């Protein structure tokens, strides 16, 4: 373990822990009590970065979206906001606020501010690209939220490198507040972003904040060939990796490194990701304190060169 300092997000003045706590499970597979315990333990374990979205958990029967933001807002009101906590949320997939039109972005931001109970959103993402809205309109709407003091910094999620570059160019040409980070799908068994997105991030001084860092649970080590079934909403997609020879090589390498270091496989997988070029923080969620305990070492775990190289080679496409 190491004394690891918080990292900056792009060129912003936001500094975050290596582990970003995902709020997608709050109000879905984690009720209020469990969510509060996870948030309490995360902060106590040195975490400073909580990520959610206005659409969490609209996909679940009987849910309307905004459940996660609401629970986080209640936790903040009950516990008091930690001084160094960075809050991120997103717009474009809430049933009442779909897309990235200017009016929708403004309305969704106001709704998120109310649910979270804060004066400003530290990091506001365009959650998914919206091909039906001109990029200039979206870029200007986000920039105006910064000017209004409702948002501190802007991020993009699930946008292609070409669309990210176009958004950044619009901001440069028109003097708008530009995104400082990108949230991509990236992990030991999904390294496609290294071809085009990582070079773009280097060029434009963007931070990457990967999601699905544990490959929907596969990289926790709980999925094994011939092993027992796992009770998880993502078990099907994670279990499918058991048919992939490269994924099994990664699992073997994780076992080796985790055994050598005496830490959970999940922490090893995320620690590898946290030290990839341009990555500032890695996103992972936990339904309860027991799951979170396997993730918290990431805040202080830096892999030695031998361990990192073993994982890099095992996961090479």
Report on this structure.
- The longest helix is centred in the last third of the chain and has 17 residues, at 245-261.
- The protein has helices at 32-44, 67-79, 102-116, 135-147, 161-174, 193-204, 235-239, 245-261, 265-274, 289-295, 305-314; strands at residues 7-8, 15-16, 19-22, 49-51, 86-91, 93-94, 97-98, 121-126, 151-157, 181-183, 207-208, 282-284.
- The strands form three sheets. The chain has an eight-stranded parallel β-sheet, with helices on one face.
- The protein has one domain (7-217, 265-303): TIM Barrel (Alpha-Beta Barrel).
- It contains eleven helices and twelve strands.
- The protein has 317 residues and is of the alpha/beta class.
The total count of strands amounts to 12
Distance N terminus to C terminus?
Answer: 29 Å
Reported by name, the CATH topology is: TIM Barrel
The CATH homologous superfamily is named: NADP-dependent oxidoreductase domain
What is the CATH architecture annotation? Alpha-Beta Barrel
SS class:
alpha/beta
The number of distinct helices, counting runs of at least 4 residues, comes to 11
Largest sheet: 8 strands, parallel
User: How would you describe the shape?
Assistant: globular
CATH class: Alpha Beta
Number of domains: 1
Strand content: 5-15%
Q: In order across it, which strands form the biggest sheet?
A: 11-10-9-8-5-4-3-12
Low-pLDDT residue intervals, each spanning 5 or more residues: none
Average pLDDT over all residues: 95
String of helices and strands: EEEHEHEEEHEHEHEHEHHHEHH
Q: What share of residues is helical?
A: 40-55%
Radius of gyration: 19 Å
């Amino acid at each position: 373990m190491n004394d690891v300092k918080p990292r900056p997000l792009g060129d912003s003045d936001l500094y975050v822990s290596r582990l970003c706590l995902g709020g997608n499970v709050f109000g879905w597979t984690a009720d209020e009590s469990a969510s509060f315990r996870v948030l309490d333990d995360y902060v106590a374990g040195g975490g400073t970065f909580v990520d959610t979205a206005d659409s969490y958990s609209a996909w679940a029967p009987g849910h309307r979206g905004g459940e996660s933001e609401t629970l986080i807002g209640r936790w903040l009101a009950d516990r008091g906001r930690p001084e160094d906590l960075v809050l991120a949320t997103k717009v474009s997939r809430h049933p009442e606020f779909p897309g990235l039109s200017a009016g929708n972005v403004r309305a969704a931001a106001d709704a998120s501010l109310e649910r979270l109970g804060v004066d400003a959103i530290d990091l506001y993402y365009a959650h998914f690209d919206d091909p039906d809205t001109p990029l200039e309109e979206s870029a200007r709407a986000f920039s105006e939220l910064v000017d209004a003091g409702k948002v501190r910094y802007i991020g993009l999620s699930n946008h292609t490198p070409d669309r990210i570059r176009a958004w950044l160019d619009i901001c440069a040409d028109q003097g708008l507040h530009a995104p400082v980070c990108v949230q991509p799908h990236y992990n030991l068994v999904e390294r496609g972003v290294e071809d085009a997105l990582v070079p773009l991030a280097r060029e434009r001084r963007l931070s990457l904040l990967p999601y699905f860092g544990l490959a929907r649970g596969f990289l926790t080590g709980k999925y094994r060939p011939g092993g027992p079934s796992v009770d998880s909403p993502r078990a099907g997609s994670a279990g499918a990796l058991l048919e992939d020879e490269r994924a099994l090589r990664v699992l073997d390498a994780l076992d080796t490194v985790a055994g050598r270091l005496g830490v959970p496989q999940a922490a090893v997988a995320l620690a590898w990701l946290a030290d990839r070029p341009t990555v500032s923080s890695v996103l992972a969620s936990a339904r309860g304190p027991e799951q979170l305990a396997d993730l918290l070492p990431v805040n202080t775990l830096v892999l030695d060169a031998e361990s990192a190289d073993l994982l890099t080679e095992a996961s090479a496409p």
